[in-house]
Amino acid sequence: MPFLLSTPRKVRRVKSTQFFRESCICYPSSFGLPESIFAAACSRSGQRVLHVDSRSYYGGNWASFSFSGLLSWIKEYQENSDIVIESSTWQEQILENEEAIALSKKNKTIKNVEVFCYASQNFQEDIEETGALQKNHASVTSANFSEAADPNCLPTEDESLSTLSCEVPAEQTSSETEIALEVNDAEETGEKGSYSDDKTSEEETSENVSTAEDTTEQPKKNRIAYSQIIKEGRRFNIDLVSKLLYSRGLLIDLLIKSNVSRYAEFKNITRILAFREGRVEQVPCSRADVFNNKQLTVIEKRMLMKFLTFCMEYEKHPDEYKAYEKITFSEFLKTQKLTPNLQYFVLHSIAMTSETTSSTIDGLKATKNFLHCLGRYGNTPFLFPLYGQGELPQCFCRCKAIIDQFGQRINSKHFLVEDSYFSENTCSHVQYRQISRAVLITDRSVLKPDSDQQISILTVPLEEPKTFVVRVIELCSSTMTCMKGTYLVHLTCTSFKTAKEDLEPVVQKLFIPYTEMEIENEDIEKPRILWALYFNMRDSSEVSRDCYNDLPPNIYVCSGPDCGLGNDNAVKQAEKLFQQIFPNEDFCPAPPNPEDIVLDEDSLQPEAAESSAMPEANTETPKGSTSLGNPEKPSE
């Protein structure tokens, strides 16, 4: 079984299936974001760290895949077969006073996987992904598609929603520009040196690479065949979990503080959208946009400014909200002399909270956080990492070598385990929540943009009892997550039924299936779906460690992704676990200044040998992006 050594921060990653109660170095198991942050914090404090991961890809449920990589992932879960471990070498390593706790080789955190292909599938078996290392993509994909269901009735267009927002001025400090932002079209650039799913430098080939259809005849306008998606599959970076980074959130602060930010690049979310009465409209996010909005009356603008000013400092005025703490935020808004239009807008596009479950305090906190994050790096509060969410775990732990060994005993004092590795016996009393996810590849944006490089977030409120708010994030090709001429759309909500049952009603409101008949109709305004994936993902973020059976005290549990928009929960988990194990150490302190590091002759030898074994990383940054080491003031 291969052992992967990783990162210049002494973090190692190996593959394994067992761990023991009595050991002596610290290592986390799995490779998700909380575990990677924890590993980096341990290494930064001088600990030796070993990552143990049985999966063939980085990131666990935080991973990002190329299109062919995602199809392989889909096939793995649709087959749903148990993995048999033939070797018993590990059993010989158990001492008399020890008891082995078996880790599950079967990941049961994903279920109800359904795939629909609407694009033309008249591809040949020899079509392969540009730059791919294997030629079996056609066999991987052809068996995995469900029949495309006919669309149900579509909503009619009603009156326009008057939308607005307000940017509260924020003081600019020098630390606020220490994150790389993609300020121009990243599609004009080369590729990033190292990212998930074994992407190679072959992806740096020209955008002019033609598909099979391109070489034989000129396709009709907007026609995209499935073979083209396959061939351009390495231009996709498809996240299993859909999240954004708040510009003043815990993860951004940690990236800057620890100087790990130099391993990632980001784009600002350019649009916040609202959906009401069957229409999608853009929310103005700056102060100037609010006052230039022609759909709002002067009175509405004043109402909104007054309310948002209150939200920014609501703690100083308890008399204005204390009496409403036991009601929902939606009911509280009705008492604030806001028009129904403004109430809807604050609830769903600014606070982004549930109409039925979020309390007044929850709503005020969410609104304040939104306003607090405005203006730090751009015109909205949110950032998105280039190449997808799967880049973030690798920022903290980057692999560099492989050692082929099996049956080796590794001693450690502490074990950090992602809960998907536990067996059914360990989890027999645990009640999990579920997340409903959908990933769509579409041919155009949900709202016709001024330019074709817009990144948007849209919250669709619930309309039926026992349903949940659906979050929609639409990514353009300049995020390095999809090929030119397409958009990658992520839908997320808390599960009530299967992912398809939960999310299909929203999909039908915003999109239509891609068919040859509809290609001829250029008057269609809705985006057409080329390909769709639905699945449910386990949410263990609120499960207590006490719910798991018979865990020794030196085993610490990490959850997978939660349903929230940001990454604060992952950072809080990592910091809490770190403080439990190392209460007297700083969590991810800033690295020392290289000029202050003095190396003696003994320490230079291993370093030189280590460097010679490491391949040189491609440190080129895409054109139009700011360097992490040379921050620039972002354009707004």
TrEMBL record:
Compositionally biased tracts (Polar residues): 167-177, 618-629
Residue ranges with Basic and acidic residues bias: 189-199
A GO-annotated cellular component: Rab-protein geranylgeranyltransferase complex
Keywords: Cytoplasm, GTPase activation
Localization annotation: Cytoplasm, Cytosol
Positions in coiled-coil regions: none
Molecular function terms, GO-annotated: GDP-dissociation inhibitor activity; GTPase activator activity
Pfam families: GDI, RAE1_2_domI_C
Record-level GO BP terms: intracellular protein transport; small GTPase-mediated signal transduction; vesicle-mediated transport
Annotated family: Belongs to the Rab GDI family.
PANTHER family documented for this protein: RAB GDP-DISSOCIATION INHIBITOR, RAB PROTEINS GERANYLGERANYLTRANSFERASE COMPONENT A 1
Descriptive protein name: Rab proteins geranylgeranyltransferase component A
Organism: Heterocephalus glaber (Naked mole rat)
Origin organism lineage: Eukaryota, Metazoa, Chordata, Craniata, Vertebrata
